[in-house]
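Thread: "does anyone have the structure for this chain?"

Original post by V.I.:
We have the sequence but no experimental structure in hand. Need at least a predicted one for the grant figures.
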Amino acid sequence: MKNRKFVAPPFLRRGDKVCLVAPAGALHDPAVIDRAVALLNSYGLQPHVAPQAYENLGSLAGTDEERLQALQIALDDPQCRMIWALRGGYGSIRIAGRLDWTGFKKNPKWLAGFSDITVFHTLLHRIGFQSLHAWMPVNLNDEQPSRVRNHFFDLLFGKKPPVEFPHDSMNLHSREIQGILTGGNLATLASMCGSGFDFDGKILFLEDVGEHLYAVDRLFRMLDSAGALKNLAGLLVGKFTDIRHDDPPFPFTVKQIVRQLTAGRNYPVFFNFPAGHVPENYPLILGAEHRISRNEGGWRLTMKQ
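Reply from O.Q.:
Generated one for you, tokens below.
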């Protein structure tokens, strides 16, 4: 559905309630929550921490029931204006199919996070709502540039600053394009291949971390086999970090893998977009119309006003 319009939840205002939930991996350092609360307070927002956020069951932030209930309460809360995932990790897919979106549809709110939280972005995309692919409280540290932090709150409060990124010699079919932005974490999206995608005519953003090169090749081919790479408006490749190398090595780089799969396609491919598992992880409103245009020495991603 190329021309489908996605609903944007209301942008935030001072005094709004923000729900902090851990729907996937466990937080073993409560200071992460303390830093998030302090940051939200500094912007005049009212943080509410789900009690479940302090739970852990091995690598998970509590049992499936605890995580499901905490997220469902936030989705249903008419006073909550944003749900901010405290971290990713793994676990979202275990509860995704049991969520009830009825209350959310009556009172839409921003859902923010990335990595494993791509599961929820994808579900929101399917029911026609925008969401915020963004760094999480677990990423709050001295390495994070202040401009990235400011960009996050600019978006939440309704501003639409562009993101500049450099030209890359491996870009393919470079030209200006426009389309609805979608995507997220490659491995997470690939795990949802069986339920289908609606990427036709859209700009697909992808990033990942900690994968073997051969696994990156496999994951891209899974998306391609599912038809996800067939009719894009464009492919925006973010950061692929902490890639694992084997002995003997897999013979292709991430960029070569992508070019092999897209060389016969007509749409442009842009590399080195500043988002992913890196300190310079610019937030993106998925489901919103964006334009990629030229600027001096590179490119600019701009959300439609």
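V.I.: this helps a lot. The longest strand covers residues 177-185.
O.Q.: and The chain has two domains: 17-156, 163-303.
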